Amino acid sequence: MKNLTITLLLLIIVSDIFANDINTKSDSAMTYYLNSDFEKALTIYEEIYEKSYYSADLFYNMGNCYYNLGDLANSIYFYEKASILNPSDEDIQHNLKIANSKIRNKTEIVPEVFYLRWYKSIVSINSTDKWAILSIIFFIICLGTISLYLFSKRIILRKTGFYSAIIMFIFSVFSLIFSIGQAKMITDNKYAIIFETSLVKSAPSDESTNLFEVNEGLKVEITDSLNLWYNVKLADGKQGWVITENVRKL
User: What are phi and psi of 224, to 5 degrees?
Assistant: First the structure.
C-alpha cells in the first residue's frame, strides 16, 4: 500500500512538471508568434509535438505557423488534425477553408447521401468528450426526473417526471451514440494529405499508366496499400496509386 501511494505521488508530480513545461513552452511560442517570428514559434511547437502531446490548440497553432511560412501542405495537415479533435471550432474551420482555397486545381466533392451528411454535421458539433459529458448530464437529469415520478404525490408532477425522464433518457442515448460516432471517425480515419504534387498511376508501379495529377495540400482517402504505394480516392471519386513518400496520413 505504501509503495502504491509513493508511485501515485510520483506520477502526479511528474504529470504536473510535464504540464508546467508544456504551458511554459506554449506561452513562449505564442510570444514569438505574436511578434511574427513564425520560425521560432514553430520550433517550440514542434518540440511540444515531439513529446507526444496532442491538442486541437497545438495543431491549430502549428497550422497557423506553417501557413504564414508558406508551407501549404503542412498547414492543411495540422488544421485537419485540429479539426479531428475539435470539429466545432469555427477558427479552425475558417483557417482550414482559407488554406484549402490555395490548392491548385481542387476537385469537386461528390455530394453524400443527405442522411449521412446530416449525421456527420450533427456528430461534428461537439468533440467526443463533450458528447460523452452531455450523455452523463442527461442521464443524471433522467434519474432526477424518475425520482420526481416515483416520490411525488401530485399527478401533474408525476406526469412531468415520467415524460421528462423519457426525453432525458433519449437525449442521453443519442449523445452517447454521437460520442461513439465521433470517436469512430477519429480512430477509423483513413485520410491523408498530399505533400508533393504527384502523378496518380493506374497500378502500384512506375511503369504503369498516368491517370491524373494531385496537387500539394489535397486531402485524399487511402483505400489500399501495397509495398511503397497507396491507393488513394479523391473527393470526386477518382482513384489511383501514389507513392507513399508523397503522402502523409492524418
Answer: -165, 165
pLDDT tens for residues 126-146?
778 888 899 999 999 999 999
Query: Which tops the pLDDT comparison, 28 or 19?
Result: 28
Alpha-carbon distance of 27 to 3, in angstroms, equals 36
Residue 110, pLDDT > 80, answer no
- Residues 6 or more apart in contact with residue 62 via CB below 8 angstroms: 42, 45, 46, 49, 74, 78
Q: What is the pTM of this model?
A: 0.68
Q: Distance between CA 53 and CA 19 in Å, rounded?
A: 10
Annotate 63-96 with b (16+ C-beta within 10 A) or e (fewer).
Answer: bbbbbeeebbbbbbbbbbbbbbbbbebeebbebb
Round to whole Å and give the CA distance between 157 and 154.
Answer: 5
Could you tell me if 221 and 232 are in contact, meaning their C-beta atoms sit under 8 angstroms apart? yes
Q: Locate 79 and state its grid cell.
A: 488544421
What is the C-alpha to C-alpha distance for residues 215 and 236, in angstroms, rounded to an integer? 14
- The C-alpha cell at 13 is 508530480
Q: What is the pLDDT of residues 64-96, one digit of tens each?
A: 999 999 999 999 999 999 988 887 788 999 999
Angle at 28 between CA 26 and CA 30, to 5 degrees: 70
